[in-house]
Write a structure and sequence with these properties.
This is Cupin. This protein is mostly beta strands. The protein is 0% helix and 53% strand. It starts with 5 loop residues before the first strand and ends with a strand.
């Protein structure tokens, strides 16, 4: 299990699933640049990225053994896994496992989509933040 979501000083990297022109889905990784700034004086400086729009959030919880067969994402959205262990598979056959702390941006809102599986022994819960079209 390789964690892609990571922090290195000045950047955050997360998973992304997108759709190609043939309607197939693929994984890649996205890196967001940050700057060390005095953003909340008198607190010490911390790393901040550029603002992106977001206006609401929700939670998804999957029962043990739950499988979401091949489906496109219902909307462009960030998923931050809070509990459990989940696996996602894109149509090119790549499978990635996610554990609490992993972040995924779903952009495969058309085409064949992806498969999601709760592979842990308990419930899996995501914090979901819808994102406007890119």
């Amino acid at each position: 299990m390789t964690k892609i979501f990571s922090f290195n000083p000045g950047q955050v990297t997360y998973h992304r699933i997108s759709t190609d022109e043939q309607g197939d889905s693929h994984f890649d990784s996205v890196t967001v640049k940050q700057r060390l700034v005095q953003a909340a004086p008198p607190a010490a400086p911390f790393y901040v990225s550029e603002d992106k729009p977001a206006s609401k959030y929700r939670f998804y919880t999957f029962e043990p053994g739950w499988v979401g067969e091949l489906h496109p994402a219902p909307a462009r959205q960030f998923l931050a896994l809070l509990s459990g262990e989940v696996e996602m598979e894109t149509t090119d056959g790549e499978v990635r496992r996610f554990v609490p702390g992993d972040l995924v941006l779903l952009e495969d809102t058309s085409g064949r989509g992806h498969v999601t599986r709760n592979i842990g022994d308990g419930y899996a819960t995501y914090l979901v933040v819808p994102a406007p079209p890119a």
